Amino acid sequence: MRFRFCGDLEAPSWVVHEITTLSEISSVRLKLLVKQVLNHMLHGSMDYAKVVKFTTPKDSESDPSLTKGALAAVHFVLASAAKYDIDEDTLAKEIEQLGLPRENAQAILRPYRESKTALRAKFTADTFAVQRAKTISCSKIPPSESAAEASYRLNLQLEQDGGNSRDVQINLSSDQLAILLHEMEQVRALMDSLESSSPLRQRSRDYVPTPSAGPS
């Protein structure tokens, strides 16, 4: 099943798995967790002690993997929904289809509605601040004992001020790579459509040179 908040792709398998974790958190705690994630996305700060409390079942010890999984899932839902400009009703329907109880879905929706405009503005500002990549390469990492599925490593060499460069490596799952490629195709199609509709391009197409007068 394809979801609009995932860019009209299937939801990544790890997100589907983590929805189970979010389903076991009370709606009140989930709403507070969402607010912490949004604060981190918009302002770069988070009270991790509270996050651990929100994601730890009562009478249980904290589990770092559980906390990180819940954080990643909430971040993905919020960031993807804002990026694709998904309305509340559609987002509610789709995350419920993934198995999230209605009351927990509502715990995500209100903070999302209140922060959607700010998130989109932040994403736009960050996009224009991205450094130009001098070189890009991708290599496949085969499965291992610690990872049942193959993954991919994206290697970037970014330009910096003063002519220097910085190497960045990003590890991606198969699902994440598929989403990245899909989004790049969408951007390329958008750029092509904007270029074809440019007034300068239209004028250049309509321009017919006037033959110059020859010697009399």
For this entry, give a set of tags.
8 helices, 57% helix, 14% strand, globular, disordered C terminus
Gap between N and C termini: 74 Å
Q: Which segments are poorly predicted (pLDDT under 50) over 5 or more consecutive residues?
A: 210-216
Give the biggest beta sheet.
Answer: 3 strands, antiparallel
Number of helices: 8
Q: Can you give the mean pLDDT?
A: 85
Secondary structure category: alpha+beta
Helix coverage percent = 55-70%
**Count the strands?**
5
- Outline type: globular
Please trace the helix and strand order, writing H or E for each element: EEHHHHHHEEEHH
How large is the share of residues in beta strands? 5-15%
- Which strands sit side by side, in order, in the main sheet? 3-4-5
* C-alpha Rg (nearest Å): 23 Å
